[in-house]
Fold this protein.
Amino acid sequence: MKTQITLPENYTKLLDIDLQKNKKLALLVNLLGLAIIAVMVVAAHIFNPVSMIFDMSEGLGVYFARFAVIAIGAVAYILLHEIVHGICMKHFSGMKPTYGFTGLYAYAGSKAYFNKRDYIIITLAPIVVWGIVLAVINVFVHESWFWVVYFIQIINVSGAAGDIYVTVKFSKLPPDILVNDTGVAMTVYTKENEVKQ
């Protein structure tokens, strides 16, 4: 089934996902994010010690510049992450996405009902796109700047913990599901006969 602008009549709600209301799920997603951070830091530390970020051999200006780039890069990444979600939503639905900030996180949302394949692409697009871009940059930067770029990569992967959770969960659902993602919550719908089974 293609992306729908309106919910078909024979569809009914299967489940809701709202990390602002479901504190237990929010905790699980945050723990997943922390686990990702730990694994990524330990794995990279083996090849390039994390202490390199504190190397002052290039001068105090370069030392502070690294931390400024991390801070600016983190904010820019959050915005770019949501823009990629939005671009994909527009591509699959033809509808302009909405963007916002809840106070806890930024989001992209849509009024459309996305099919399973399209929604998983929408969900994973930022981590894949920016993961590749950041990995290429990491290959070419001087080793003293490795951790600057890699910290943004850590934000990329750990910050997508919710996207990873949703992808795994939705991949186990029926193939005909439709997903409405307003940005702050997701509602999954399926054909009525499948709910009864």
Observations:
- The chain has one domain: 11-196.
- The chain has a mean pLDDT of 89.
- The longest strand covers residues 11-17.
- The beta strands are 11-17, 98-101, 106-109, 114-115, 178-181, 186-191.
